Amino acid sequence: MFPILSKREMAQGTVIENEISAPRIAKKARPGQFVMLRANETGERIPLTMADTDPEKGTIKIIYQVVGKTTALLKTLEPGDHIQDVAGPLGKPTDIEKVGTVACVGGGTGVAVLHPITRAFKEAGNRVVAICGARTKDLLILEAEMANASHECRICTDDGTCGYHGFGTDLLKKLLDSEKVDLVVGIGPVPMMKAVVNLTKQYGVRTLVSLNAIMVDGTGMCGCCRVTVGGKTRFACVDGPEFDGHDVDFDELITRLNSYKEQEQEAMERFEHKCRAEAALK
Amino acid sequence: MAEKKEAVPRQPMPEQKPEERIKNFKEVPFGYPPEAAAKEASRCLNCKKPGCVAGCPVGVDIPAFIQKIQEGDFAGGIAKIKETNVLPAVCGRVCPQEAQCEARCVLGKKGDPVAIGRLERFLADWERDQGEVPLPEKAPSTGKKVAVVGSGPSGLTVAGDLVLKGHDVTVFEAFHKPGGVLLYGIPEFRLPKAILSAELQYLERMGVKFEVNAVVGKIVTLNELLADGFDAVYVAVGAGLPYFLNLPGENLIGVYSANEYLTRSNLMKAYLFPEYDTPIAFGKNVAVIGAGNVAMDAARTARRLGAEKVRIVYRRSREEMPARAEEIHHAEEEGVELYLLTNPVRFLGDDRGRVRGMECVQMELGEPDESGRRRPVVKEGSEFEMECDLVVISVGAGANPLLTSTTPELALNKRGYIVADPETGKTTMPGVWAGGDIVTGMATVIMAMGAGRTAANSMHKYLTLGW
Ligand SMILES: Cc1cc2nc3c(=O)[nH]c(=O)nc-3n(C[C@H](O)[C@H](O)[C@H](O)COP(=O)(O)OP(=O)(O)OC[C@H]3O[C@@H](n4cnc5c(N)ncnc54)[C@H](O)[C@@H]3O)c2cc1C
Ligand SMILES: Cc1cc2nc3c(=O)[nH]c(=O)nc-3n(C[C@H](O)[C@H](O)[C@H](O)COP(=O)(O)OP(=O)(O)OC[C@H]3O[C@@H](n4cnc5c(N)ncnc54)[C@H](O)[C@@H]3O)c2cc1C
Ligand code: SF4
Ligand code: SF4
Ligand code: FES
């Protein structure tokens, strides 16, 4: 059992941050790695990236967007409650090297995954420009943290309520036009990562993306998370989750992410129904 | 008319009717009632040089335990089995007896062999029904610590043996529950999970500690275990890397590896969705590629998940099917169809990226290959299309490099399996033993347990004598 130590709501309660006590994982985890987590006995195993770790305190931080049954269930857990299972650290850590200038482009909750990576690139002696986007001002997360983790942090929103009015890719294009960028790291919704990659291909700039394929075990034993990279089938959980974006078949990933749409909806509806019934009883 | 002594026939085991059982996940055979067990036991000739014992990979003293049944001494019988086999309730159910013990029974020369597996199961089930199994006496503590990596049958055997010999044993398991393939691979209708739980509880009562969610190689390496105070390590991580066919269309939605399909259903209990959260595709028209135990388990699971049509697609002929005879028999009874000498060449998708069929070719058997089986070759011009909305690929599994890639000291063979001395289980890394599927490639439960027994003896010597 893994105790929850703190809970913070962000982006109007659509994004939750939890600090969880997991001393052995905290000691080993590196930026870019994830955990597989199961909330309770009947729960599904879902992957979440560690947004931060504190080896001294023995804690890891997760930041997740509430999108379906499991994340909605997690949201109901308060400090003092426990998560039944947390396994990790899984996946390959980000290859952090000194390359020169790095642009870290994050969209939505992807910013949470990007944050420790951004900080690590800065600490490795790179010049780091962060670009953080969201649909609207209230959904932006971790602006202060990203500003700290980079040399310069540019903000954008789709509706112009904060920062630049437009997409992260617009800001990235401006950056690529104005200076030499050696590496782009793009993490966010799959369509956003695809757009980033389409852009950087034109500039010939190497681009890392983090693939959020559906997973079961997270250790390479089921093949559920397979993605096509460079024409070859790879397992996102062990060969990734980060890959060279220029080689990724994003359309296949988008299709596979829809594998269980109907069942996910059914699970979510039942869960909401149960929550409403419980609320009515109180 | 002269009275001729009627020979007792092999006793059938009562079981759920096919039309009933495809609607549930309960175990198919009910087991022998005591009378049938006594009758079956009476068939055994108590041979002086029993072939059956030579056929069992761990050499269970079969005539001795069967004699105990004849005497009505069930407690004595189960004790006899447990001298060599610590998981009889499992082995009685899943061993390929027709290729092992029963294959060598003298009665099999003229008629049906003694139903050794069923009798083994009978005794184990009888013992469990008696309530809490008394614990055997443990040797005094040696003060030595042992780490077992992987909680499948091989790891559990080592844990049980070494804890009895007085060592302090911790089992590390990557998943959130122990059991290995017995838990996530073999379905409930063939091996009820309550049986596995009883075995695990027994080990816990003996003092074995379990650490779940512990992916060794990631959270801790073998070197760190040895540095952290473990005196010896046994590696039994199984053959957990699913093979795919590398055919076009293999990543369409609805194409699963057997590992994924069975893990979702067994470990994650997707068959109880939406009570349990993990989803699974409910195919109506299912094709399972391969013909081993894993393929049969997938096919029979699909049937229980509501498939109207389930086909086993296999490139060789019936004689070469590697599954246990009983599994093939049960699958056919449940309406699973066999498409033999057939091989897929690509998967076909619809406009939403879901599988809608496969293009197949027919095969014929040519000259024998390295495995001694006749090699299937494609019949010219035999392409045809087979409709299906779910495909489960069960063409075997290999060595998962997750652990071994973090341990350069462990010598691997060219297929990635750990090299271990068959006499002792010793690897090339000091203080580390290995056994089970990660050494041999996917074999059987009892072989994995046999390797565990061998390694446990060698580890005990090392821990007490230093070599
Ligand atoms: C390596 C990795 C790291 C991730 N890190 C984060 C993170 O830090 N923060 C965050 O908000 N999200 C992260 N995700 C995505 C997160 O796992 C999914 O949002 C979550 O599983 C949704 O579960 P649900 O039951 O709430 O929603 P559901 O309604 O079940 O699913 C919503 C969508 O999430 C995806 N999904 C569903 N089940 C799984 C599964 N078992 N594995 C992966 N994806 C699934 C599917 O695309 C699905 O359509 C990560 C995914 C991966 C693979
Ligand atoms: C579906 C199916 C049906 C089968 N049917 C039969 C049958 O009817 N009869 C028969 O005799 N045999 C059968 N087999 C084969 C048999 O189950 C295996 O040969 C046997 O289980 C091997 O045992 P093992 O202990 O070596 O490994 P496994 O049972 O594979 O156990 C390995 C364990 O190690 C864990 N692990 C892996 N990596 C790590 C890590 N890095 N850190 C920690 N833990 C790790 C795994 O999660 C797993 O729990 C079947 C196999 C399958 C898949
Ligand atoms: S362990 Fe398996 S092979 Fe050995 S006697 Fe029992 S059923 Fe037969
Ligand atoms: S070979 Fe057959 S008849 Fe002889 S002892 Fe073994 S089981 Fe009994
Ligand atoms: S999640 Fe099972 S192999 Fe990656």
Task: Describe the protein in words.
The complex is a heterodimer of chains A (282) and B (467). By secondary structure, chain A is an alpha/beta fold. Chain A has 2 domains: 2-90, Beta Barrel (Elongation Factor Tu (Ef-tu), domain 3); 101-210, Nucleotide-binding domain of ferredoxin-NADP reductase (FNR) module (Rossmann fold, 3-Layer(aba) Sandwich), CATH 3.40.50.80. Chain A is 33% helix and 32% strand. Chain A has 9 helices and 16 strands. Chain A has helices at 23-28, 69-75, 110-123, 143-149, 168-178, 190-203, 236-239, 250-257, 261-281, and strands spanning 2-10, 15-21, 34-38, 45-54, 59-65, 82-83, 85-90, 101-107, 127-134, 152-157, 164-165, 183-187, 207-210, 226-229, 232-235, 242-244. In chain A, the strands form 3 sheets. A 7-stranded antiparallel sheet of chain A has the order 6-1-2-5-4-3-7, sandwiched between helices. In chain A, strands 11-10-9-8-12-13-16 form a 7-stranded mixed sheet, sandwiched between helices. In chain A, helix 2 (69-75) runs parallel beside helix 9 (261-281), helix 3 (110-123) runs parallel beside helix 4 (143-149) and helix 5 (168-178) runs parallel beside helix 6 (190-203). The longest helix of chain A has 21 residues, at 261-281. The two termini of chain A are 28 Å apart. The model of chain A has no long low-confidence stretch (mean pLDDT 93). In chain B, a hairpin with a 5-residue loop joins strand 10 and strand 11 (355-368). In chain B, helix 4 (62-70) packs across helix 8 (116-129) and helix 13 crosses helix 14 (293-304). Chain B is globular and about 70 Å long. The termini of chain B are far apart. Chains A and B meet through helix 1, strand 7, strand 14, helix 8 and helix 9 of A and strand 5 and helix 13 of B. The complex binds flavin-adenine dinucleotide (FAD) (2 copies), iron/sulfur cluster (SF4) (2 copies) and FE2/S2 (inorganic) cluster. One iron/sulfur cluster binds at residues 44-47, 50-52, 62-63, 105-107, 114, 116 of chain B.
